[in-house]
UniProtKB/TrEMBL annotation, chain A:
Keywords: Heme, Iron, Metal-binding, Oxygen transport, Transport. It comes from Terrapene triunguis. GO terms for cellular component: blood microparticle; haptoglobin-hemoglobin complex; hemoglobin complex. InterPro entries: Globin, Globin-like_sf, Globin/Proto, Hemoglobin_a-typ, Hemoglobin_oxygen_transport. Pfam families: Globin. Belongs to the globin family. GO terms for molecular function: haptoglobin binding; heme binding; metal ion binding; organic acid binding; oxygen binding; oxygen carrier activity; peroxidase activity. SUPFAM superfamilies: Globin-like. This is Hemoglobin subunit alpha-D. CDD domains: Hb-alpha-like. The gene is LOC112105133. It comes from the Eukaryota. GO terms for biological process: hydrogen peroxide catabolic process. Residues 1-141 form the Globin domain.
TrEMBL record, chain B:
GO terms for cellular component: blood microparticle; haptoglobin-hemoglobin complex; hemoglobin complex. Pfam families: Globin (PF00042). Keywords: Heme, Iron, Metal-binding, Oxygen transport, Transport. Residues 3-147 form the Globin domain. Belongs to the globin family. It comes from the Eukaryota. This is Hemoglobin subunit beta. It comes from Terrapene triunguis. Gene3D superfamilies: Globins. One of its GO terms (biological process) is hydrogen peroxide catabolic process. GO terms for molecular function: haptoglobin binding; heme binding; metal ion binding; organic acid binding; oxygen binding; oxygen carrier activity; peroxidase activity.
Length: 141, 147
């Protein structure tokens, strides 16, 4: 799936995310809620106004989990096992939404990394986020 | 017909005025071929597509990318008549080029990422939403003529 070069590119680019997990996470969620309003149906209990405390908190949670995934690319299933259970038995988010959030997160990376979000980094992250999404959905049935 | 708010039209036309069609077009096509390599199936006559570097420096990719985004510009100029604007191209993509319409969605999302990397903060969530609606409308219009 991910070759050694791609893993390197992912880890290297992730250094730019460190220190900005909350900002990047909140922005990704806000983009997703704006572009794909149907995703808001999973958050009826949230204040979804721009920059809300709940969005910032949740965004940080999501990006921190992605950071865990970056550090465990060789055993994603194991590293994300609890999140996988959570999504399968508790949250039951339709997996189509993982693609939507992945796309919005990539837009955030493109916005903040600009030139450094090269095509090579882009494809590595596209593959990585697809792998994370697959793991989150693997216990659904 | 797609309904556009004045704000959406503004996001689209004002950003488009600043787009370097040649640079963005060639970059978008190159990224499509790099990120989704199976799309190379439509470009067997384009020469060396063997690596990201080769694709990024391929003159045919460059020229074709410019052509594709220039054509996309017709949608921006005809926001209220997108279906009609792409009727002929739709037929072409079905009957001559045999392109799976899924590829229009892939290219649309790639264009969004290219715009994001060029315009950064200016590419706000609201701006992204307007552009996602546009690339979706173009993808839809291109698929309409399929039979």
């Amino acid at each position: 799936m991910l070759n050694a070069d791609e893993k390197q590119l992912i880890k290297h680019a992730w250094e730019k995310v460190l220190g900005h997990q909350e900002d990047f996470g909140a922005e990704a969620l806000e983009r997703m809620f704006t572009v794909y309003p149907q995703t808001k149906t999973y958050f009826p209990h949230f204040d979804l106004h721009h920059d809300s405390e709940q969005i910032r908190h949740h965004g940080k949670k999501v990006v921190t989990a992605l950071g865990d995934a970056v550090r465990h690319m060789d055993n994603l299933s194991e590293a994300l096992s609890e999140l996988s259970n959570l999504h399968a038995y508790n949250l039951r988010v339709d997996p189509v939404n993982f693609k939507l959030l992945s796309h919005c997160f990539q837009v955030v990376l493109a916005v903040h990394l600009a030139d450094e979000y090269t095509p090579q980094v882009h494809v590595a992250y596209d593959k990585f986020l697809a792998a994370v999404s697959a793991v989150l959905a693997e216990k659904y049935r | 017909m797609v309904h556009w708010t004045a704000e959406e039209k503004h996001h689209i036309t004002s950003l488009w005025a600043k787009v370097n069609v040649e640079a963005c077009g060639s970059e978008a096509l190159a990224r499509l071929l790099i990120v989704y390599p199976w799309t190379q199936r439509f470009f067997s006559s384009f020469g060396n597509l063997s690596s990201a570097e080769a694709i990024l420096h391929n003159p045919q990719v460059h020229a074709h990318g410019k052509k594709v985004l220039t054509s996309f510009g017709e949608a921006v100029k005809n926001l209220d008549h997108i279906k009609q604007t792409f009727a002929t191209l739709s037929k072409l993509h079905c009957e001559k080029l045999h392109v799976d319409p899924e590829n229009f969605k892939l290219l649309g999302n790639i264009l969004i990422i290219v715009l994001a990397s060029h315009f950064a903060k200016e590419f706000t969530p609201a701006c992204q939403a307007a552009w996602q609606k546009l690339v979706g409308a173009v993808a839809h219009a291109l698929a309409l003529g399929y039979h």
